[in-house]
């Protein structure tokens, strides 16, 4: 056994406590997953496994690993560090140091820089790996010696990495700016080392004492299960730790220890594998849990095809891609056991229910393949909390409930792949009409409401020959929707000046002309008070999407601003008028048809995701033989995808022949309705008042202000 350095042996915080003897009937055992240094480990209730003879108390056990003199430093970085932090003073080197040989000078400068980072290399040897206490995480609760430091043989540079999953601090620093790059040295830290061969005898493991058997009994783990899994203990003087041996094909590969304070450590330079690996050999179904005791709990529920990860859970899911096998150090145990895992067709991830446990499940699924992974849902403990893990469920609800939890595991979610049952709540609300707007919002015109209603999340394409009143009709529709249900709108109307668009909207709202001119006929002009009232209505109802320079807006630019309007102002409708005023640059290899298809897909995804109805105005192509009839949706310039991809297609057509009928009559041709619940194909006729821009049903008299 290695001798502790003086600063460890003389440090009261790390000094080993003496083990006292006590009677087994003088203490109580807490049914918790954590140990506590303030209570003993005897059962709360009488147990047949209790003995009348004294038993040694389970106290903290520290492995014989060298400890660094590093002081705690609140420093954390995910990148490479080559200079001290900003609040560290610049080093000043003496003339004596400058006179030393270059390699000695490099080492001294390197030592000074690392000391600023909290790493003391006084006892470290260049050219080999050195293990220290990490100044970033202090080794966690177990004070694990987890920092691997490599110093170049010539002392020119150093690289380090903390192997704790919850830390991972790593970095590189050099003595001089022109020193050799030491990125290659970081890979030497990751290099797979020669594994130790260990045996039960060499580790001095021994059977569990009755006190520990009683402790496991309180956790509903039987002596038979402990014996089958060869759970043992290790003593060092008066100290005892639980030992979980890791076997593979009958050979001892690793051993993990747990002390009274729930601190864990493993044998150094041993291979990382699953705990209980031999139990999943040739298994088609595998259960993976987060801790050794959870693996034992699964066996009590009848599942031996279960293994535990050796290193616990990460704090969160990594945002990076899964690294290559040789670089995937934190999950090397998966690669070491791949021969066992590749035979499994169904892998149940029964990790803890807390955020780190869920992060572990995601990291495992990323590597094992989500398509063959399942996940468990732990039962509710109360109205707010759930049970955390398998052993908690076993202790409080029993083996039958734990068995049900595993048997009712759900498919692990794969992004973009769903089942209808994932939407049953929404389907029920749709059936009972509690979602809102299931039948759409009426347009405000009786003649049209039977044909077309406005549904959030849909795309309506509107077309018509020039000067047919497409934009005027949509403006009137928006005014009706605001009046009936209070919707707000984002307007990307590039053919209108802001003042002209405001005038048209105000005339429709106030039902009086903006100016006292010839088009206003004999109707009284809106007053200043009415104008001020209308301006407030404009400000509360509409938000403008406009380019402030002379460039053409792209569809992405429009949708990004519309998204901001949805999130910031709660708009429910977006008008894009017209298509040909947008920037339609596309790759040379992309046809206009392909471009239009892609553009409309983006618009529809926006509408669906934000529950926002989109009206898109598109002009028809030049009609050489037009005889005055309404155009078809297939006449839209650009692509047939305008009708193929839209949810609703409308043609606005105005009569221009006095002999054919009133010239103020507007024909609204509904040519496509995807959702039969909200409308159907047909024509509606409205009357247009040129003075106010208001549309009314033909049999409806003009409303007075």
Automatic annotation (TrEMBL):
Gene3D superfamilies to which the protein is assigned, alphabetical: 3.40.1360.10, P-loop containing nucleotide triphosphate hydrolases
InterPro entries per the UniProt record, alphabetical: DNA_helicase_DnaB-like_C, P-loop_NTPase, TOPRIM_DnaG/twinkle, TOPRIM_dom, Twinkle-like
Domain spans labelled SF4 helicase: 434-702
Protein name: Toprim domain-containing protein isoform 1
Pfam families from the UniProt entry: DnaB_C (PF03796), Toprim_4 (PF13662)
TM segment ranges: none
Residue ranges occupied by any Toprim domain in the UniProt entry: 284-402
BP terms from Gene Ontology: DNA replication
Organism: Theobroma cacao (Cacao)
Single GO MF descriptor: ATP binding
